[in-house]
Amino acid sequence: MTVAEAQLEAYVAEVVEALGPVEATFVLGSALLGGFDPATSDLDLVVVVEPPFDPEAARAALDELPVPFRKLELVVYRVGAKPPAYDLNYPDGDGEPDFWFVLDAAIAQERIGEWLELLEPVSAEEARAAAAELLRWAEARGERVHAARARHYLEHGKWITKEEAR
User: Fold this and answer.
1) Phi first, then psi: what are they for 9, rounded to 5°?
2) What is residue 76's three-state secondary structure?
3) Are 90 and 59 in contact (CB under 8 A)?
4) Count of H-run helices and E-run strands, the chain
5) pTM (two decimals)
6) Inter-residue contact 76 to 147 (CB < 8 Å)
7) Handedness of CA 136, 47, 55, 11 (dihedral sign)
8) How far apart are alpha carbons 10 and 85 in whole angstroms?
9) pLDDT tens digits, residue range 37-88?
10) Across the chain, where does the E strand assignment appear?
């Protein structure tokens, strides 16, 4: 295990402890696809919980944790939820485009077997529609890396890392 992997594992454990009982924790984004750099990467984390879950108490507990990476991007779902139906999107809150949650779910369900045991799947059609939405969003903002990743998925049906997209 590398130092970065150990640091990531220790921080995930702190997040889980702050949230209380959880059913599962999934590390997504560059930590799943490759290219995670503790100095420049966000930690994309999905936690699955059983009700009851108190988003405000969770937010307060998470606000107390120092983040050893660029940013924590945490999404909490209840068991059986279908993304993008989250209970907590931390720290960004509501207002993010739904396509981000659908795409994260599509990638996770391809690569993490346990995902489909706890959450409802997104269909291939939903994933393609979300990728097309990401492409429009990225092109409108000049986000070349996101656009290249979305375009590659739409053309080849596979996700590439940000590094590969550069």
Assistant:
1) -60, -45
2) strand
3) yes
4) 8, 4
5) 0.93
6) no
7) negative
8) 28
9) 888 888 999 999 999 999 999 999 999 999 988 999 999 999 999 999 999 9
10) 24-28, 42-49, 71-78, 88-90
